[in-house]
Write a structure and sequence with these properties.
Layout lengths: L20 H17 L4 H18 L5 H12 L12 H7 L4 H15 L2 E4 L5 E4 L4 H24 L5 H15 L8 H23 L3
Antiparallel strand pairs: 1-2
């Protein structure tokens, strides 16, 4: 896999607020050629292409395509299910012959703009959880249903809900029962679940109080 050198870029094209379908198609095709030239596995290519499409549709066209395509590839190869994946960002950048700073900047941009959760293992290596992926969908579904059950139980018993215990139960279910999340991410998933519980409980509270 050979990637060309590129300059660090700190912004996107000014026209990004109105991206035409033709432009999106062109960028996806350019990305395909890039991955094809570098002999990227089709499974990873398809996921990276979809990430490219989603980002360009929302944020516009990056002025430097190669590091952007590289960042999309980096993120899809670091799905939580890929753990253990010992390849560091430095090694990834060196292997693909691109600047680590460029890879990092575009990775952070994609993660931030598309709302990816970043989980870290014990070696503090990053893994990217897609907000519309299977893991996030399951987490959201479990949290929503569980909070609803706890809230109505509190209504009929008159006892305040124990969200701390609920978070522990949900994380245990996700990591050890359903096993949708590798146990190595248990601590960070716990933090994520706690935030989602807070958001969901506030939404239900507002709904029940007529706000």
């Amino acid at each position: 896999m050979i990637f060309g050198a590129e300059a660090m870029v700190t912004h996107f094209d000014d026209e990004h607020l109105a991206v035409s379908p033709q432009i999106i198609v062109k960028v996806v095709r350019d990305a395909h050629e890039f991955f094809k030239e570098n002999k990227i596995d089709e499974r990873y290519e398809n996921m990276a292409l979809d990430l490219v499409r989603r980002f360009v549709s929302k944020e516009g066209v990056p002025r430097e395509s190669d590091p952007f395509f590289g960042a999309a590839l980096y993120m899809v190869t670091r799905h939580p299910w890929s753990h253990p994946n010992p390849l560091t960002k430095t090694e990834f950048a060196n292997k693909l012959r691109m600047k680590e700073s460029s890879l990092e900047w575009y990775t952070e941009s994609i993660a931030d703009k598309l709302g990816f959760a970043i989980l870290h293992d014990n070696a503090h290596l990053p893994f990217f959880m897609d907000p519309i992926g299977i893991i996030a969908s399951v987490v959201d579904s479990v949290v929503s249903a569980s909070v609803g059950e706890v809230v109505v139980r509190g209504i009929v018993t008159g006892s305040p809900p124990s969200y701390s215990k609920l978070a522990e139960n949900i994380v245990d279910r996700l990591c050890n029962v359903v096993k949708i999340v590798p146990p190595v991410f248990e601590r960070e998933i716990h933090n994520l679940v706690r935030r989602k519980i807070e958001d969901e409980s506030k939404k239900l509270s507002d709904q029940l109080s007529g706000r």
